[in-house]
């Protein structure tokens, strides 16, 4: 199975992909990502970007040495970081002739039928108007998400809501390995996962970096959500956004999780 010919794509990018170890924004990578997504959009594809990074970018903007350990500190960081994040996205996408729209959501927006329908309508109109929706959790108010949530699952939920043809999760890892590549030099990348079961979760390991909240477990869980809705999911390294072209052209990149067979 390949992603060649898809018309509606959700791309999720994590904090560790958007920032350096210093906590400052990786501007070069962000520009490349905006360039590739703009080009895909120009080709006729509806593109949604689910982005992490508000807290991480806020930490860098505020000059903090590390992510605050308390919830109010993270909320404040998110408030500052979200402004900076959307300023940069708007600037970079505009340079490629694209319009963007911000959607800050919480779990309640998907669990409440009325709000969920309103959200779906907003996506549809943004597509009709030729804009690229940029989605993030509303970390400044959704304390439950800050503590327990992750944007991997959010991206899968968004993909399911809009009926996406594929979900791509960009991270600082190449995909799912049969062992921890940091501990085992013989670990091999698993190119395709046909069924997500306990054996797959067992090899995920722990995770998250100091800048992000997720890890391989959350990405596999996201793939499980998307695949159950018939949406193939790819986890790949986001260090080279241009690899999205290879993926869309049908080449094997990262790990592809196949939809459940009915």
Walk me through this protein's architecture.
This protein has 262 residues and is of the alpha/beta class. 44% of the residues lie in helices and 16% in strands. It has helices at 15-18, 27-42, 54-62, 71-94, 107-111, 113-128, 143-148, 151-162, 198-202, 216-228, 243-248, and strands at residues 8-13, 46-51, 99-105, 131-137, 166-171, 192-193, 233-237, 255-257. The chain has an 8-stranded mixed beta sheet with strand order 3-4-2-1-5-7-8-6, sandwiched between helices. The two termini are 16 Å apart.
What is the straight-line distance between the termini?
Answer: 16 Å
Strand adjacency order, main sheet: 3-4-2-1-5-7-8-6
Order of helices and strands: EHHEHHEHHEHHEEHHEHE
The stretches of 5 or more residues where confidence is low (pLDDT under 50) are: 206-214
How much is the average pLDDT? 89
Q: Tell how many strands the DSSP assignment holds.
A: 8
What would the principal axes of the Cα set say about the shape? globular
Number of helices: 11
Sheet-strand content, in percent, reads: 15-25%
| Structural class estimated from helices and strands | alpha/beta
The description of the largest β-sheet is: 8 strands, mixed
Determine the fraction of residues in helical runs and give it as a percent range: 40-55%
Rg, Cα atoms, Å: 17 Å
What is the oligomeric state here? single chain
């Amino acid at each position: 199975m390949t992603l060649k010919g898809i018309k509606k794509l959700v791309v999720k990018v994590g904090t560790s992909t958007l920032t350096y170890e210093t906590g400052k924004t990786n501007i070069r990578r962000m520009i490349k990502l905006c360039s590739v997504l703009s080009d895909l959009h120009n080709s006729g594809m509806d593109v949604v970007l689910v982005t992490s990074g508000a807290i991480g970018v806020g930490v860098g903007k505020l000059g903090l040495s590390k992510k605050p350990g308390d919830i109010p500190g993270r909320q404040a960081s998110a408030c500052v970081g979200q402004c900076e994040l959307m300023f940069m996205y708007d600037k970079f996408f505009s340079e490629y002739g694209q319009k963007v729209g911000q959607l800050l959501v919480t779990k309640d927006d998907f669990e409440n039928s009325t709000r969920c329908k309103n959200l779906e309508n907003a996506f549809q109109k943004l597509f009709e108007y030729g804009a690229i929706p940029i989605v993030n959790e509303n970390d400044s108010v959704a304390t439950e998400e800050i503590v327990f949530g992750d944007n991997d699952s959010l991206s899968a939920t968004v993909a399911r809501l809009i009926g996406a043809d594929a979900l791509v999760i960009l991270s600082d890892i190449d995909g799912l390995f049969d062992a921890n590549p940091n501990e085992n030099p013989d670990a091999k990348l698993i190119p395709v996962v046909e069924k997500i079961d306990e054996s797959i979760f067992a090899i995920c390991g722990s995770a998250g970096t100091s800048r992000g909240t997720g890890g391989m477990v959350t990405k596999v869980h996201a793939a499980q959500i998307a695949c159950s809705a018939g949406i193939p999911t790819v986890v790949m390294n986001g260090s080279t956004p241009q690899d999205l072209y290879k993926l869309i052209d049908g080449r094997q990149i990262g790990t592809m999780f196949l939809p459940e067979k009915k």
